[in-house]
């Protein structure tokens, strides 16, 4: 069991992932890289051999992190039905794709859930799958917003996800989707991270968000933003 983790968070790269290469390649002793979805533009060349998904997978493999975890955002899920998920999962040879799944990395419990559309399903039941004791939750859906002033933010905040986050109390809740709400804030002893790299079309991407976690058994000793 490790006592210290270096973690970097990215999201909403929208096929511009290679613009982050210099920054992420310079990370020394990176333990975990987390991508919270929307690495394509509505699938882009997602299905084609040698297309966007292959380039993204190759890029992930070039980065100096021991573990790379990712989920799907709305741009991926719109073109992938449930029957396709397992096939697509196999295409990620350089990362672990999480679909409502918990992984344990050296004692750190991380749960990942891909985009949940507002399609009439019981969202409370969907989010209830996040286990108590989870220390990092990755979703594309935003449970909270740094600022609810914009119509984009207020419309897309998932109140049912927020309720579950406040029940589980992870150390980090990592997400994206709302490009204008990038940042880190704390609420009710949970650190929320909107890691969306995309901001306005044509502008330089937002920086990856990094943390150093110091743990004693399964208890947080220190959380430092890098």
UniProtKB/TrEMBL annotation:
<dbReference type="InterPro" id="IPR029052">
    <property type="entry name" value="Metallo-depent_PP-like"/>
</dbReference>
<dbReference type="InterPro" id="IPR051693">
    <property type="entry name" value="UPF0046_metallophosphoest"/>
</dbReference>
<dbReference type="InterPro" id="IPR004843">
    <property type="entry name" value="Calcineurin-like_PHP"/>
</dbReference>
<feature type="domain" description="Calcineurin-like phosphoesterase">
    <location>
        <begin position="6"/>
        <end position="180"/>
    </location>
</feature>
<dbReference type="GO" id="GO:0016787">
    <property type="term" value="F:hydrolase activity"/>
</dbReference>
<comment type="similarity">
    <text>Belongs to the UPF0046 family.</text>
</comment>
<dbReference type="Pfam" id="PF00149">
    <property type="entry name" value="Metallophos"/>
</dbReference>
<protein>
    <recommendedName>
        <fullName>Calcineurin-like phosphoesterase domain-containing protein</fullName>
    </recommendedName>
</protein>
């Amino acid at each position: 069991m490790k006592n210290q983790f270096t973690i970097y968070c990215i999201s909403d790269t929208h096929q511009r992932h290679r613009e982050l290469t210099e920054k992420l390649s310079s990370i020394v002793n990176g333990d975990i890289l987390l991508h919270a979805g929307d690495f394509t533009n509505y699938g882009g060349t997602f299905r084609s051999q040698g297309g966007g998904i292959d380039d993204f997978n190759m890029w992930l493999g070039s980065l100096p992190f021991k573990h790379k975890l990712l989920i799907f955002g709305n741009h991926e899920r719109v073109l992938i039905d449930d029957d396709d998920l397992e096939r697509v999962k196999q295409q990620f040879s350089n990362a672990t794709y999480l679909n409502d799944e918990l992984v344990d990395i050296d004692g750190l419990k991380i749960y990942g859930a891909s985009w949940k559309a507002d399609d009439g399903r019981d969202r409370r039941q969907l989010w209830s799958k996040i286990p108590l004791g989870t220390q990092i939750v990755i979703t594309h859906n935003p449970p909270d917003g740094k600022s609810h002033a914009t119509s984009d933010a207020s419309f897309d905040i998932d109140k049912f996800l927020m309720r579950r986050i406040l029940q589980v109390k992870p150390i980090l809740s990592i997400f994206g989707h709302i490009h204008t709400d990038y940042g880190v804030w704390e609420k009710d002893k949970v650190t929320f991270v909107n890691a969306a790299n995309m901001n306005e079309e044509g502008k330089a991407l937002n920086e990856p968000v990094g943390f150093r976690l110091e743990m004693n058994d399964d208890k947080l000793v220190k959380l430092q933003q890098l």
